[in-house]
Structure formats: C-alpha cells, structure tokens
Amino acid sequence: MSMANIRFDRFSPYLTHPEAYGITNLKPYPSYALIYRGIRSEIIDDIAYYFVGDYGIKSQIDSYTEALGKAIDEWKSQHCDCAMFSIDLDSATLICDFRNPKNELFVVLNGVYKTIYFACNQIVAELTLFGLFQSFKGSDSYLEGDFQTVIEELLKRNLIIREGNTLLNLAVPLGCEYSPNHIVLQRFQKALDQISPSGISNEESLDLNDIADVLGPKPGMVTNKDSIFHNEGR
To answer: What confidence score (pLDDT) does residue 201 get?
Structure first.
C-alpha cells in the first residue's frame, strides 16, 4: 500500500480534453528529462506517457491527504505482525484478531452469528441477510431489531464493515491459500496458551480442546508439520 501524487496518462480524457477538467500546464513527468538526457523537450513530449499539470485544488491536496499518509505509514510499520484470520470448525468459527491490541484476540462465532458472518464472505445486502436470519430462526415473527443486534455486535467487534446497506466480513479464512507469517504464528501460540476465547452468542461456547483437530496433537503447537499453520519458511 502506498500513496502517490496525481498524474495524468496519455490517451486519457485529462490529456485529450484537459480544459474540461480545469487542467493546465501539462508537461511530461520530471523523470523523463533524467532518462532522456540531451533529447529536445518536444520529442520527450511525444514519447512520454505520464504527465503532470496544474489544477484548481492542487494546493489543497497535502492538507486533506495528510491523515491518509500517516495511516499508510502506520500500516507499513505494523503490518508484519498484524493479521486477522478465521478457523472454521464443525461447531463454531474461531476469529483470531491480531490487528489492534484493543481488540479481543479470540472471538467465537456460533449459531446465527456464524451463519450471518459467513454470508458476508462477499459483499451482501442487509436485506438478503435479514432473509437468511429469518430462515435460520425458522419464523417470520422475529423482529428486525433482533437482526440488527447481531449486525451491530459484529460491527462493534470490527469483524465486518458496512458501506451503505451492504456488508462484508474481514477475516481471511485459514487454509491452503493463506497462512500467517512466523511473527503472527508466535503471537498466536503465546496468546492461545494464555487466553480463552469469548463467545458472542448465548449458545454453547467453543472449548479450546475442540481446536486440537485443526492445530494438531496439542493446541498451540502451531509449527507442527501436521498442522494447517505449517508454512515452509514464509
């Protein structure tokens, strides 16, 4: 993830009709002059693909992008030991959240919470989820407020995000396409030895012993070769 200054590409409307967008003083990206030393500027104008120019809000960009730049720098400094992944078990789903020290490291989803969460594996409308909620409950008599309680609980724990009337879950499913790096695995092993998961449903919570089938012979042995956490030096 990174942030860069605005540029204008050849064949884009910004180059063919700059006046329509309030763009003036278009010229090739400064690096072209360093690459094609001694070449006349008219020729560079013809071969360049990336351009810079002036536009109305150019002087304001630094002020409104400052917070974004700081957030990106913070992400770069922390991303190596941050992760959020899910372990799907028969009876429940274990969410392992290593993004923010303020978050609960382990959250157990079962019952309707698990059903709604996994329905958000792709962007989904709240209305669709409400239908699924009613189907899970087996009755149309459940009020929308009951459904909103589930959604708000998942949102409060930062397990899903909302944009408009759509939702998406955030944890990466653990499996053949994803394995945490060794730093996260060490944090996971240490946390698993010290903390019990907390469930967010009123149904039976997950016993850590149930995770043995996923982790290997002993919970917390995350580098065991029989474990799905085993990653060849990554």
So the answer is: 46
